[in-house]
Structures are given as structure tokens and as C-alpha cells.
Amino acid sequence: MTLRRHLINTKYNITNWNAGRLEVGVLLGILANIIPTMFYMIIHIFSDEQLLQRIRTELEASAIARSSDGSTQTLKVMSMRAYCHLLHATFKEVLRHHALGSSVRYVREDILLDGKYFLKKGMVVQMPMGVMHRNRHAWGNDATSFRPERFLADGSEEGGKNVRQTNTAHAFRPFGGGTSLCPGRHVATLETMALAALMVLRFDVRPANGGDWVIPEPRQESMATNVFPPEKDVRVKVAGRAGAEGVKWSFSMG
To answer: Where are the beta strands (DSSP E) in the chain?
Structure first.
């Protein structure tokens, strides 16, 4: 992938300076955003026993292929994306809660928005995701609550096309929007969902101290990122699920 990017940069006469700037953007997506997103995805699922069991049931019914003797199980990544609606809704709700960056636009011409907001040419407009993602007019009175079901078709049950997204598209911008919409959003979605799926299917995870789960607040490090890392580590005990001993796991894009 790195070589391919280099060849494209060379083909279109991208200078080394600008190529380096583009590479920083790639690293921000791969490291600065996806890793904390995976952390929050896993902790939100394992901290809610009911959600955990529902996602396990969904995955086992729709996204797992088993060998005839049961010794090998394969996670079908595209089936997971297409049919595991609750897992996908959980990913979106994680982003709604934890994507706190800002979209930025440069005003190219004087413009009056909604008949009352005057933006002068040359101004820079920032649109903080955290404000949009907690807007009660868009998300309801439970906007500050973690509830993946809000992204499901009827707001409560698994299955069906996501229709809620249509009503809240203006208030859900974890990947930005318009011409700067993140081109790697599909890869980020699949790899985060796949890791969470394997963790859910293969392991039991509990707080190391035996107490209740505490989901840490984010630690703001840079406005260049969207999902900030947790302000502190969470110590856990990880054990293989009973009955899954000796099973070999693999991926397929089916």
C-alpha cells in the first residue's frame, strides 16, 4: 500500500513535502483514531452484559462459518458488515460518543446562512463533532446516553435497513462530510468491527479488580484527531470462552 501511494504521488508530480503531509494524514487515521475507537468499542460491549450476549448471538447466527468437525471457525467479514446490524449500530454509537474532533471549512465568498448568520469571505468555520453528536434536537432526550439501538431501523430491535441515519445525517459526522469525507471510513469500519467480533466470540473480559466497569473519559491530545485516547488505562482479566478451547480462527471476505 505504501509503494502504491508513492507511485501515485510520483505519477501526479506530488512533491516530497506534500507527500509527507499526506502520509501524516494516513497515520492519523490508522493510529490516532482507530486504536482508541477499538478500545471504546470493546469496553462498551463487555461492560454491558445484555449487549454482549445479543452481539454474540447475532455474530454466531450470521457471520460465522464452521468446519464439519467444529475445529475451525471463520469470521465472514462482509457478512458481518451486512447482517450484524447491532454490532454495526454499536460501532456508530461509539463514534457518536467519542468522535470529538472538528470539521473545518474556509469561507470563499460572503454568505448569509439561515437568514441570520453572516460568514465573511476569508473566515474559517469550525464545526465541533461533540456538539452535533449530543444535540437533543437530533438525537432525542437521551442524547447523552449510550444506546446503540438508536441506529437500528425501528430504534429497538435488530435487523432491517438503518433508517434512523437518514434523519440524523446532519448531526453525525465522525468521518467528516462533503468533499473531505474520509476515504478510509469503510476500512476503519470493517477492521474495528472485525476485531470487536473476534474479542466477543473468543474471550470473556472483566475488570481485574472484580468490581464494576468504569469507562474512562477521553484525554484530549490534539485537534488533529477525532477520537481521543482514554485518560487512564483500564486493567482487565482476559480468559478464553468455555467450550472454545482448541478452536482455530480465520478470516474470509465472504
So the answer is: 64-66, 72-76, 102-106, 111-113, 117-119, 124-128, 203-207, 236-240, 248-252
User: In the predicted model, what is the mean pLDDT of residues 161-183?
Assistant: 74
Amino acid at 162: N
Q: Where are the beta strands (DSSP E) in 9-107?
A: 64-66, 72-76, 102-106
Q: At what angle are helices 85-98 and 49-62 packed, to 10 degrees?
A: 140
* Sign of the Cα pseudo-torsion (172, 220, 45, 38, in order): positive
> 196 near 45, Cβ under 8 Å?
yes
User: Do 172 and 132 touch, CB atoms closer than 8 A?
Assistant: yes
Q: From CA 152, how far away is CA 123, in angstroms rounded?
A: 38
Q: Name the average pLDDT for the chain.
A: 89
How do residues 109-145 score in pLDDT, each as one tens digit? 999 999 999 999 999 999 899 999 999 999 999 999 9
Residue 167 is predicted with a pLDDT of 59
